[in-house]
Amino acid sequence: MKFKMTALEKKWVLYDVGNSAFTMLVATIFPIYFNHLADIAGISSVNYLAYWGYATSICTLFVAVLGPTLGAVADTKNYKKVIFSVFLGVGVIGCIVLGFLSSWIWFLGVFVLTKTGYSSSLIFYDAMLTDVTEPERMDVVSSQGFAWGYIGSCIPFVASLGVVLGGGKLGIGMQTSMVIAFLITSVWWLLSAVPLLRSYKQKYFVETTQHVVRNSFRRLGGTFKEIAREKHVLFFLLAFFFYIDGVYTVIDMATAYGQALGLDSTGLLLALLLTQIVAFPCVLIFSRLSKKLASTTIITICIAAYFCIALYAYGLDTQLDFWILAVLVGMFQGTIQALSRSYFAKIIPAEKSGEYFGIYDICGKGASIFGTAFVSVLSQITSNVNIGVSALSVFFLVGFILFRKAVKAAKAVK
């Protein structure tokens, strides 16, 4: 029987299409423009990669601090959409402002605020999954979000890429091109959120009290105690901490990595566009497989694949190598994120989805502070970016072992 999404599920998926455009911009054009600004300031390629990694780490640290607290507040009746809207606004406005900056240090500073807004909005967006669909539909709906996000983000990306690469022929300079590119992405991102904001209603919640923040902190403390008792949730979060750290580090630093190796900017951008295109059918294929295979089995396969990809990165030094890496990443990137999100949503209390997903985000985007910082520090110490990136294989190995323990613990609970 063909799977049909409800109107609300489609509107939820549409936001993935919008926010993925910003993800694509961060992974491609942002680091190239920052490289341009850093080059003008006389910063070396190794330090350029390190500074970009440090800025990304600071973003994730902010989100790690904000996520669980605001997630607990968002579980209060009618709060989730409000907090989501605030962080969406911070992200969209920040993205527009970035195009007007010509100082590398100011660019990094505003980038930290913008990405914090973006990443924080995703905590509450992910938490909405329990409100917009049913547990038995979550794997497919979550996968649809990532799949259409990948292919949908190509539209503003291609438009932005055309402006950036064709700026000379159009008679406009680098900064004007960036203003237009960032504006295209911001408008796309904002418009994609409008249908969800108009239709979303918080289905599961905690009743409003006089002391919302104080009671939210109390609930959050109770949630940490619950997680400590629920071994299947605890081991999953620990596993997720390691394996998704590696995944997000690859996403955040792919273009910066290629730039540090001296690879052609146009080739890098096209290779990462290919990643999006490859990811679309692969997520849908794995989504169909999730009806026949347990999502835990598919997640295990993806972690093992990423372990091999990280090892492959050690010998990367040509444009062709980077294209191969882009295809391999595209095959598993969306699936591991989509099924991890839906699997977690199914094993947590729906009425506490905000605070649980706040903690999930610490172990996800919050954890990537270690991956990006790890790659940055190791690259500077060894003066070899290949060693820094390939060392991420350790994260996937530890994640693999812990995830299998989580699966075993979940079977014991059943």
Describe the structure.
This protein is mainly alpha-helical. It has helices at residues 7-27, 29-40, 45-74, 80-98, 104-127, 129-132, 138-152, 154-165, 167-170, 174-199, 212-229, 231-260, 265-289, 295-312, 319-346, 353-363, 368-382, 385-390, 393-413. Helix 4 (80-98) runs antiparallel to helix 5 and helix 12 (231-260) packs across helix 16 (353-363). The longest helix is centred in the N-terminal third of the chain and has 30 residues, at 45-74. The chain is globular and about 60 Å long. 55% of the residues are buried.
How would you briefly describe this protein structure?
By secondary structure, the chain is mostly helical.
Blueprint (SSEs and pairs):
Blueprint: H1 7-27, H2 29-40, H3 45-74, H4 80-98, H5 104-127, H6 129-132, H7 138-152, H8 154-165, H9 167-170, H10 174-199, H11 212-229, H12 231-260, H13 265-289, H14 295-312, H15 319-346, H16 353-363, H17 368-382, H18 385-390, H19 393-413
